[in-house]
Amino acid sequence: MKICLISDFFYPNFGGVECHIYNLAQNLYKRGHKVIIVTHCYDDRVGVRYLRPFIKVYYIPFYMLIRLVILPNFFISLPILRHIFIREQIEIVHGHAAFSTFALDALLSAKMMGLRTVFTDHSLFGFNDFGAIMTNKMLEFALGDIDGVICVSHTSKENTVLRARISPSKVRVIPNAIDTSLFVPTDTPPSSRDEIVIVVMSRLVYRKGIDLLSGIIPEMCAADKRVKFLIGGDGPKRLMLEELREQHRLHERVVLLGNVEQSRVRDVLIQGHIFLNTSLTEAFCMAIVEAVSCGLPVVSTAVGGIVEVFPADFVCLAEETTTESLTKGLLQTISRCTRNAVPDLHLQSECRYKSHVVL
Q1: Who has the most CB within 10 Å: 20, 63, 91, 273?
Q2: CB atoms closer than 10 angstroms to residue 105
Q3: Distance between CA 194 and CA 185 in Å, rounded?
Q4: Are 122 and 103 in contact, with CB atoms under 8 Å apart?
Q5: d(CA 146, CA 82)
Q6: Domain boundary among 122, 147, 173
Q7: How far apart are CA 10 and CA 23, in angstroms?
Q8: 287: which residues sit within 8 A by CB, 6+ positions away?
Q9: Residues 194, 291 within the same domain
């Protein structure tokens, strides 16, 4: 079949949705389907580009309004989308992410042309703030005649059904997955007894709980002199972490890596002993799956669909979404796993990973 994947979120921007779309396109191509990707332009990246293996990407000259999404224009984008759909003989249009106005516009245009449409929701949204109300109304309008909806967790399904007011029978739950051959534990785990490396891989934005992280860092550094933080990712909250590092003089114990390419994520994870996730809302959370696959015990907030991802022996879930609860979870994980020997922490997690096949 000829399939179009469309979203505001795609490379060169990095994130879970971007990786999901690219991996989905690769696997559809391997199954014999023709796949194209449509997104808006990024800086000077305009026009048609090609990604391996022979996947055509259209960077449409619509410019970002806020948070990487374009201005909602509904049928103003119809002429160019119609041209692409006819030129590529598209049969199915698959939109991604509820916050992507481009994806919602494309679904409306596709239905006007009589094409089949599918939508995948990757995030959770509320109901009571202005941004959520506007997003939910657009989602309800765009999904009014949708052929199928995919959610990444049962929590996400319930959220989407309520927000878009669609029949639950149209929604299927397909959990996210990773290629575990790309995220394997190292044969030589960190062996220093003088430090415990806590890894954080996340966009540095409010939704990812960076305000919580800024409270955890000084408490953990004061509670255990061996603790060191390795933080990958970038965003508007990076300045807060830099100021925190300056204020508490933690330059040698808090390392900010900035944006980390997907191909280097495993190299960062295997440098650590514990993975920390502080998200305030998550439909699934790919980061903890990658961390567990690399043999790291995980300490995380218990929000959204995170509780559905792993059984309790894989993840230490904080009782409350607070700095105190997450700090307590980190200290308990260190105490339980290390037994005064840091190498045992990583090796125990690696053995636990190899003894389960849920991944």
Answers
A1: 273
A2: 25
A3: 21
A4: no
A5: 18
A6: 173
A7: 11
A8: 16, 201, 202, 275, 277
A9: yes
Instruction: State the DSSP code for 224.
Output: -
Contact 74, 111 (CB under 8 A): no
- Residue 312: the pLDDT is 78
- Per-residue pLDDT of 248-275, as tens digits, reads 999 999 999 999 988 899 999 999 999 9
pLDDT for 357 equals 35
What is the dihedral sign for C-alpha 47, 52, 54, 55? negative
pTM: 0.84
Q: How far apart are CA 329 and CA 215, in angstroms?
A: 14
Residues 159 and 210 placed together within one structural domain of the fold: no
Q: Which helix (H) or strand (E) holds 256?
A: strand 254-258
The CATH number assigned to the domain holding 20 equals 3.40.50.2000
Residue 92 shares a structural domain with residue 203: no
Tell me how many domains the chain contains.
2
Q: Is 301 helix (H, G, I), strand (E, B) or coil?
A: coil
Is there a contact between 5 and 25 (Cβ–Cβ < 8 Å)? yes
As a residue count, the chain comes to: 359
Q: Is 81 helix (H, G, I), strand (E, B) or coil?
A: helix
Q: How far apart are the first and last CA of the chain?
A: 29
For residue 211, give the 3-state DSSP assignment: helix
Tell me if 359 is assigned to some domain: no
Q: In this structure, are 44 and 59 located in the same domain? A: yes
Q: Which two tokens stand for residue 115?
A: 């094409």
Residues in the chain where the model's pLDDT stays below 50: 340-359
**Which distant-in-sequence residues (6+ apart) come within 8 Å of 123 by Cβ?**
97, 98, 99, 156, 281, 283
Residues 40 and 184 in one domain: no
Pair 159, 211 in one domain: no
Q: Which domain holds residue 42?
A: 2-173
Residue 67 and residue 195 in one domain = no
Tokens encoding 213: 């992280």
